[in-house]
Write a structure and sequence with these properties.
With 326 residues, the chain is of the alpha/beta class. The protein is 28% helix and 17% strand. Strand 10 (259-262) and strand 11 (267-269) form a beta hairpin. Helix 1 runs parallel beside helix 2, helix 1 crosses helix 9 and helix 3 (102-112) packs parallel to helix 5. The longest helix has 13 residues, at 46-58. It binds S-adenosylmethionine.
């Protein structure tokens, strides 16, 4: 049986599936003008998602992350979570969400089979939150995170994009937040995309300086699990929470890549910043195409490059992360 291993010996137990390109936020570095539908055919439906996930699972994928766009805007999210988590071989079902709808839906997602939750939260300051996202929803998001902490998830993580001059003074506030909470915050280095060049020049901040501050404050690097995300994770005996750093511009970032992506329209993307997609949708229309689908995924994996071209300013096909699934 074929498996998801590329020519550099990397294996890919982790699939990130975008459920939609639509988003209800207007984050300054991603969709500052909000989401505008482009009139092209709509996003993968439940049956297509099931076939896709079965094929990846047959190739050894065991962890799936549902993302977008904003996945919670899908009305059929609960059936999607249930279907995906029922696929043999899938052990972990995670979601990345802006968290606005958590108070309303998190229990149902958990009951449907969600095992891990990532919530984007770039700041602990409600007023900054409103400026960053275009919405005054800090209270809902943080309330939703508190609810999630009582629901027995394998992990609850927060994502904060590091922004020079905007949120790079909040480490002390995050330390307070993490003291008693079993949460991991991931600080993500701002990535340059096709649409955010000017914003990137102004606000990109290397994560190295942050890691130095962590080490000085007594935080220590932890070992990485095989299906872990891209973060380098730190812990500290005085805190229940953990801190992760995602540094896509760092030297070995791509060597540790264990992720493949499928867009909301069914294109396989071998890299977030690759310059081509491989259409899978035509093979998602019938169970009869299962073998062809498995073969196409594993053949295409041979084309995965050793690394992205971000250092050369090559952002590939990605105008913004909402278009491919961040
Ligand atoms: N809407 C969901 C959310 O807000 O988490 C999922 C999609 S969003 C594109 C996924 C993650 O990508 C978010 O944590 C967001 O902050 C991050 N992101 C978006 N654009 C980014 C960029 N240019 N650089 C780094 N992270 C980015």
């Amino acid at each position: 049986m074929a498996s998801l291993v590329d020519r550099f010996g990397r294996s890919f137990p982790y699939l990130r599936l975008s459920l939609t390109e639509a988003c209800n936020y207007r984050c300054s570095y991603c969709l500052p003008d909000g989401y505008h539908p482009d009139g092209r055919p709509t996003f993968l439906v439940l049956e297509e998602i099931q076939r896709l996930v079965r094929a990846f699972a047959a190739l050894g994928m065991s962890k799936i992350r549902l993302t977008g766009g904003e996945p919670s805007v899908r009305k059929d999210l609960v059936p999607i979570i249930a279907a995906v988590s029922a696929v043999p071989g899938v052990r972990k079902v995670a979601i990345t969400t802006n968290g606005t709808l958590l108070p309303r839906h998190i229990r149902a997602w958990r009951e449907a089979g969600l095992t891990a939750l990532n919530v984007s939260l770039d700041t602990l300051d409600p007023e900054r939150f409103r400026t960053f996202t275009g919405h005054d929803r800090f209270a809902e998001v943080t309330e939703g995170v508190e609810m999630a902490l009582g629901l027995g998830f394998d992990s609850v993580k927060l994502n904060a994009v590091l922004l020079r001059g905007r949120n790079d003074d909040e480490l002390p506030a995050w330390f307070d937040y993490l003291r008693e909470r079993d949460v991991a915050i991931r600080f993500i280095e701002l990535m340059r995309t096709g649409d955010n060049r000017e914003f990137f020049e102004r606000h990109h901040l290397r994560a190295d300086a942050l890691e130095e501050q962590l080490v000085e404050a007594g935080w220590r690097l932890r070992a990485r699990a095989p299906d872990a995300g891209p973060a380098r994770e730190y812990s500290h005996p005085g805190y229940r929470g953990r801190i992760g750093v995602i540094a896509p511009y760092s030297k070995d970032f791509c060597a540790g890549c264990n992720r493949l992506r499928v867009t909301a329209r069914g294109d396989l993307r071998l890299c977030l910043f690759g310059d081509f997609g491989i259409g899978l949708r035509e093979l998602l229309q019938s169970d009869d195409d299962f073998d062809a689908l498995v073969a196409r995924i594993s053949t295409q994996l041979g084309l995965k490059a050793a690394g992205h071209g971000l250092h050369q300013g090559e952002t590939g096909l990605t105008p913004h992360l909402a278009s491919i699934g961040g």
